[in-house]
Write a structure and sequence with these properties.
The complex is a heterodimer of chains A (116) and B (118).
Chain A lengths: L4 E3 L2 E4 L5 E6 L6 E7 L5 E8 L14 E5 L5 E5 L8 E8 L10 E2 L3 E5 L1
Parallel strand pairs in A: 2-10
Antiparallel strand pairs in A: 1-3, 3-7, 4-5, 4-8, 6-7, 8-9, 8-10
Chain B lengths: L2 E3 L5 E4 L4 E3 L2 E3 L5 E8 L6 E7 L7 E2 L2 E6 L4 E6 L8 E9 L10 E2 L3 E6 L1
Parallel strand pairs in B: 2-12
Antiparallel strand pairs in B: 1-4, 3-9, 5-6, 5-10, 7-8, 8-9, 10-11, 10-12
Classes of the chains: A mainly beta (116), B mainly beta (118).
Chain lengths: 116, 118
């Protein structure tokens, strides 16, 4: 498919363990965003990548969260020492650019993380 | 800072009727974009419609139209001829248009649940 893909679709982990979430953006999209959606809530911005530039981490909730983007394409969001409040759906989005008018963000299906 | 407010509780509409989902926003940016996304129970976010702050006409996209009232800072989504498949969560979102980088992130409201009755 040509859309944004994320893996795994579901992840159940124990408190204190580390997890890695993967995002494959649409080919040719230079901008990549991670959002978090807690139960019954809207989406909360976490981090933004533009090409190979240093990411903007202003939305990350704590230093347990980190992300990287290799080769300006695939991105991995890592949560260390997971806590129960980290349980949420993690959504990745990509867009062709980041400024201007529409530059619609296309979303992946998300990874549902459950921390026991 | 930007803020999106969606305060309606769960909405119900009869199949084939029209429904309006409310969205108000607050921003100090002179140039911004407003978006509506649909999130069915499967979880994916589906882009529905976009309105730029300087667009002269209200956006329309098939059965979706956006009632944009700039002075009132509202951007309500109107769905005409509701279908059973329209049952979902609907999110209003906005972002700046001039600056790039993380300022291009979307700010979302908390969403509205729409249920279409047969």
């Amino acid at each position: 498919g040509a859309g944004v893909s994320q893996s795994p679709s579901n992840k159940v982990t124990e408190k204190g363990k580390d997890v890695e979430l993967r995002c494959d953006p649409i080919s040719g999209h230079t901008a990549l965003y991670w959002y978090r959606q807690s139960l019954g809530q809207g989406l909360e911005f976490l981090i933004y990548f533009q090409g190979n530039s240093a990411p903007d981490k202003s939305g990350l909730p704590s230093d347990r969260f980190s992300a990287e983007r290799t080769g300006g394409s695939v991105s991995t969001l890592t949560i260390q020492r997971t806590q129960q409040e980290d349980s949420a759906v993690y959504l990745c989005a990509s867009s062709f650019g980041s400024g201007g008018s529409l530059n619609e963000q296309f979303f992946g299906p998300g990874t549902r993380l459950t921390v026991l | 800072a930007q803020k999106i407010t969606q305060t309606q509780p769960g909405m119900f509409v009869q199949e084939k009727e029209a429904v309006t989902l409310d969205c108000t926003y607050d921003t100090s940016d002179p140039s911004y974009g407003l978006f509506w996304y649909k999130q069915p129970s499967s979880g994916e976010m589906i882009f529905l419609i976009y309105q730029g702050s300087y667009d002269q006409q209200n956006a329309t996209e098939g059965r979706y139209s956006l009632n944009f009232q700039k002075a009132r800072k509202s951007a309500n989504l109107v769905i005409s001829a509701s279908q059973l498949g329209d049952s979902a969560m609907y999110f209003c979102a906005m972002r700046e248009l001039i600056r790039t980088g993380a300022n291009s992130k979307l700010t979302f409201g908390k969403g509205i649940t729409l249920s279409v009755r047969p």
